[in-house]
Specification:
mainly alpha, 12 helices, 3-stranded mixed β-sheet, P1 Nuclease, 259 residues
Length: 259
């Protein structure tokens, strides 16, 4: 795979706890929002500005994490991930009673397309959608059901205590020292109209299977001390998944607001 150049312009916010490490860090989510914003139609851009009351998609992308401690929104906690056990399909495993990331994305899209939401609920749905499309593209958010999406895989990242999920959520990105609030920038010769169309033509179930298919790569290491070598073999995948998430998020929002 040739290197996909993305100038991720991001806010560093290292994750501390296992509960915090159950989603892309702020950097990944904001980059997804920046990328998507660049690919919206004019009409969709105006609608997003209206719904979010002037906030950017990058700002809105972390809302779902910021409200996790609010008892009124704890019912959303299972929506950040899904499980596809090894040797099974998602359809065979079934959707959990309290929902998961795939169930929640479908719910958000369907309700947003209905045009029947209150102003407040429309904003919540859009913020949730922005966040969950990012989450679904982090491979460990589609876990195999054995280790809480890599949270139970204890290791050291450049000598500091960590876990595998946290490495993929934030620590590889943070180790590259990407920061700032500029819009994500990617090379024109890499992101073609044909590639955008190809990525946007797939479904969120396809995106889940893509993440699941990457788990062999994610778990391909020996010992419990990771650093430069692991990042060398995996950082392009982090960039690719963030780029795909942004492109696909834009496709969904254009479909919702520009029909």
């Amino acid at each position: 795979m040739s290197k996909i150049i993305i100038a991720l312009t991001l806010i560093l916010f290292p994750l501390k706890s296992n509960e915090e490490a159950r989603r892309w860090g702020q950097s990944g989510h904001r980059a997804t929002g920046y990328i998507a914003a660049e690919l919206l139609t004019d009409k969709a851009t105006a609608e997003v500005h209206r719904v979010l009351n002037g906030d950017s998609m990058a700002e809105a992308s972390t809302w779902m994490d910021e409200i996790r401690s609010d008892p009124n929104f704890r019912f959303m906690n299972p929506w950040h991930y899904c499980t596809i056990p090894e040797g099974m399909t998602y359809e065979e495993a079934g959707t959990p009673e309290n929902g998961d990331v795939l169930w929640a994305i479908e719910k958000m899209v369907t309700e947003l397309k209905s045009g029947e939401l209150s102003t407040e609920q429309e904003a919540i749905n859009l913020k949730v959608l922005i966040h969950l499309v990012g989450d679904l593209h982090q491979p460990l958010h589609v876990g195999n059901g054995t280790d809480r999406g890599g949270n139970d895989v204890r290791l050291q990242w450049f000598g500091d205590n960590s876990n595998l999920h946290r490495v993929w959520d934030s620590e590889m990105i943070d180790s590259r020292q990407h920061d700032g609030r500029e819009l994500a920038d990617f090379s024109d010769d890499q992101l073609t109209d044909e590639l955008i169309e190809e990525w946007q033509s797939t479904s969120w179930l396809d995106w889940a299977y893509e993440s699941s298919s990457l788990l062999e790569q994610v778990y391909d290491f020996e010992g419990d001390r990771l650093g430069y070598e692991y990042m060398f073999h995996n950082f392009e995948t982090v960039e690719l998944r963030i780029l795909q998430a942004g492109v696909r998020l834009a496709g969904l929002i254009n479909e919702i607001y520009d029909n």
